[in-house]
Amino acid sequence: MKEPNCTSGTCCDVDRAEAKARWNSYLVGVGIGVLSWFAFGLVNQPLGISTALSSASSVCALPVMGSEGVANNAYWAKTPFKWDGGMLFLVGTFLGSLISVLVSRTFRLEKVPATWSQQFGGSTLKRLVAAFLGGVIIMFGARMAGGCTSGHGISGSLQLAFSSWTFFLTMFVFGIVTALVLFRKPASMTK
Coil, strand or helix: which one is 105? Predict the structure, then answer.
């Protein structure tokens, strides 16, 4: 697979390596389903990351707020940091993705991805601000919904939970709308 304006060089090599490294989506779906069975069977806990990530944030807040401040926080009192299935899933997701890109030889550091640069320019500051704000919004939404794409979208929808299906369908609709708004072609390119 090649970028439209890529004629030769490293970007084409990376695109070819990424095309080779893609996994079959049906096998990945089956793998996620089997993983969720193991999660329920071994640790009696659904798959999910946002609760573990937000409870881990209490460790980051310790130097700023102190142990008493963290202990008095209503949210962290309700979901304290602990090494449980959710935390292992969080760490495992990071390590699994790292191993995957290292094995497939597609690992690269980028400040501004090509897709972002083509649409919004190459400003690193603009990209970092947008990524930070996007992260804040998605974590706020995940905590407000009581779960994230893995918690609701995988575990909850497998259990046929109405709230999870509502979350999942809403996420897809707004994801499509957001992609259409952010990545629309400028009027000058459509003529």
Answer: coil
Q: List Cα–Cα distances, 130 to 14, 112, 180, 182, in angstroms.
A: 25, 11, 17, 12
- The torsion region of residue 66 among left (phi > 0), alpha (psi -120 to 50) and beta comes to left
SS3 26: helix
Nearest to 175 by CA among 140, 138, 127: 138
Predicted confidence (pLDDT) per residue in 143-163, tens digit: 887 778 778 888 888 888 898
Which is it for the CA torsion 183, 184, 189, 190, positive or negative?
positive
State the sign of the Cα–Cα–Cα–Cα dihedral 148, 96, 132, 12: negative
Burial environment of residue 191 by CB neighbours within 10 A (0 to 12, 13 to 18, 19 or more) = exposed
DSSP 49: S
How many CB atoms lie under 10 A from the CB of residue 51? 21
CB neighbour burial string for 65-97, b if at least 16 within 10 angstroms, e if fewer: eeeeebeeeeebeeeebeeebbbebbeeeeeee
HSE value, Cβ hemisphere, 13 Å, CA-based, for 150: 18
Query: pTM here?
Result: 0.69
3-state secondary structure of 119: helix
Measured CA to CA, the distance from residue 135 to residue 174 in angstroms comes to 15
Q: What are phi and psi of 111, to 5 degrees?
A: -80, -40
